[in-house]
Amino acid sequence: MQSKNNHLWTMLAIFVATFMTSVEVTIVTTALPEIIAALHGLKYQSWIMSSYLLTTAISTLIYGKLADTYGRKLLFKLGVVLFTIGSLLSGLAPNIFWLIIARGLQGCGAGAVIPLTFTIIADLYSFKERARILAFTNTAWGFSALIGPLLGGFLVEKLSWHWVFFVNVPLGVFVWLVITIFYQDRYQRLAALNFDLAGCCWLAASLTCLLLGIQLLQNQPIFGIVIITLAGLGSWCFLRQEKKATYPLLPLQIFNNQTFNVQIMTATILSGVLIGYQVYFPIWLQSIYQANATKAGLVVTSSSVMWLATSLAVGPLLNKFSPRKIALTVILLQALSYLSLLFVGNQPIDWIFYLIAAISGGGMGIVITMNIMLSQQLVTKDLVASASALITLGRSLGQTIMTGIYGAVFNTILNFGLPLTLQKKTNQVISGSHSGLTMHEITTIISSLLIALHVVFGVVLILFILVLICNYLDPNRQRLR
Predict the structure, then answer these.
(1) 256-481 adopts what CATH topology?
(2) 126 Cα distance to chain centroid
(3) What is the 3-state secondary structure (H, E, C) of 117-156?
(4) Which of 216, 256, 317, 387 counts the most CB atoms within 10 A of its CB?
């Protein structure tokens, strides 16, 4: 039995681990223009985020199964070690390919840390206590969302982009030491390993092929389509394996409820929207409006503030309106705000990006929080953990897939509109630096960047249309009871 002091230290470690893994997205997106310019990696910029998100998505379900066999402590510590080493190697990256591989290692660690924080909380606290503790960990997420852009901008301007990764190393060491010393694993280990290895392999293969195929579409479209087709075949094999597995990674009976499926689809698509403005709003402000890294990063902060504020309103809203009505209203408002981006030119109007980010974040706070609550409410008690894991996986996949698609669209449109002599100079303009460039070169590059950004957010609008249709088809018109 753990003492109260041990509980406090364990929760402190979980708070820091939650902050460490969640701040990784916002702090890196702020530094992305500098990283692209320094490593000359514009063509591969989407892989900086995609490799992290992909390995996180693949490993989440795997670590959950392994933790049921070997206990929480061993797997959590392994995740912290992988994440910390990945952070160190990312900061030391001499080229874009090293960085992409190191980011993948970070994701392998995050895939253990993120879900196991919730599992450890469930082991240590009763159901009534859990709500208070989860609110504490959500504070870490909110704090990371607020401080990430500011910290990222500060580190880039005062030190270098390398430090947006180095900052996680001491945090990882602290979490590992505290968990090693103070956390006593209560979980009773199973005698045998009941692990769906075949399902794991098919899941990893299909997701990897999907992302690789999306990335190849911009330069080798035929090869990309072939790889995506292989991803579809791998997904079919994965589902076939899950039907016959004794202990499947993904219990398929969870999809029997259509309203549940709507929640998963909504969270997945909106997560794709989320990564769009997190990555491309700072690029827009730095490359088109010449904003510094700190100012560009602040645009994401308004989204985080509104996300936390509106999530508190989900309970009262569900008491008065049906989830379908809430989702349709909020998503439509978000879509209309993004529509205005298609008419924004190269004249600095920073405020509209802060406004759109605030509306987007506020909408996410309502809809995605509601998705999580409903997905857990609509399944049987023995499938609540699977439902929570599935919606987490859906959110990771939404970001992973759309990061690749946005990158393919952005680079394709940009390269199509620029002569080869200017394509090599685009990295410099992306970071906001115009030294050594003529006015004609600057004007041409910025014009092409603006067109590429308009097309990216045109894709975002298509996602909004899809998610509106998805929620319109939701058969449940009743209030949640």
Answers:
(1) Growth Hormone; Chain: A; (1.20.1250)
(2) 29
(3) HHHHHHHHCCHHHHHHHHHHHHHHHHHHHHHHHHHHHHHH
(4) 387
- Mind listing the pLDDT tens digit for each residue in 434-481? 666 677 777 777 788 888 888 999 999 999 999 999 999 888 877 765
Please count the other Cβ atoms lying within 10 Å of the Cβ belonging to residue 316: 9
List, for residues 107-159, the tens digit of each pLDDT value: 888 888 877 777 777 677 765 565 456 556 666 666 676 677 677 777 777 77
Integer angstrom CA distances of residue 401 from 53, 212, 426, 441, 478: 9, 10, 25, 33, 33
**Residue 429: both structure tokens together:** 């303009």
Token pair in block for residue 276? 């769009």
CA dist 197 and 249 (Å) reads 9
4-39 vs 168-182: helix crossing angle, rounded to 10: 160
For residue 157, how many C-alpha atoms fall within 13 Å in the half-sphere facing its CB?
A: 15
Q: Which phi and psi angles does 108 have, rounded to 5°?
A: -60, -35
> What DSSP character marks residue 3?
-
- Classify burial at 136, counting beta carbons within 10 Å of its beta carbon; exposed 0-12, middle 13-18, buried 19 or more: middle
Q: What is the Cα–Cα distance from 355 to 409, expressed in whole angstroms?
A: 25
CA 387, 176, 158 angle in degrees (round to 5)? 100
C-alpha to C-alpha distance for 155 and 164, rounded to whole angstroms: 6
34: nearest Cα among 120, 93, 108: 93
Q: Which CATH number fits domain 1-194: 1.20.1250.20, 3.40.30.10, 3.40.50.2000, 2.170.190.11?
A: 1.20.1250.20
Residue with tokens 């991803």: 231
In sign, the C-alpha dihedral spanning 199, 201, 202, 204 is positive
Helix H or strand E segment including 402: helix 384-417
CA distances from 371 to 309, 330, 472 (A): 17, 13, 15
Task: Supply the angle between the helices 221-244 and 197-216 in degrees, to the nearest 10.
Answer: 160
- pTM for the complete prediction? 0.73
Q: Cβ(245)–Cβ(198) under 8 Å? A: yes
What is the spatial distance between Cα 5 and Cα 303, in angstroms, rounded to a whole number? 36
